[in-house]
Amino acid sequence: MHTHPNRPTPRAHSVKRLTAALTAVLLLLALFAFVGCGRTEKVVDHTTKEVSLPKAKKVVRIEIEHVNEKGAVTRVVQVKDAETADLTAKIRRADGLQIRYSNDDSPSVKPFLRVNFYTKKDSRAVLFYEKKGNFYMEQPYVAVWEVKESLYKHLANYDGYLLKVNN
Question: Which has the closest alpha carbon to 128: 56, 58, 51?
């Protein structure tokens, strides 16, 4: 069988096609890896983190701060002593589906609520906010969880001891 000297053999043509296909696949994989590395919010398994709160019996005071659109605290309400353990338990149970890690000390969404748990030794904060019709609980540098609207509304409308009001 004679072949033209400038014309590739059928086998050489198949190898060129295979090489081109593999190159295209590798380029697509590299593109997906590059795009994936640029994401700022990573979806994580809901079992990776739980909200970290002190034990209810160690909490000496809970305050709910209302932070407005400008980032200023406009209202501070102290939770009644008799309700401290119950509220701590409600928030601990509220950590539903974890949607991402928290990499800041306050959410980019304003307004929000900051719930501060004080013990004799330290304090911890949990933030609550609404974004696009969904409600979230965020513990700075730990995680963000989606929560029920009823918990957010309960905290936003909590009627405890009013410590501060600024308009």
Answer: 51
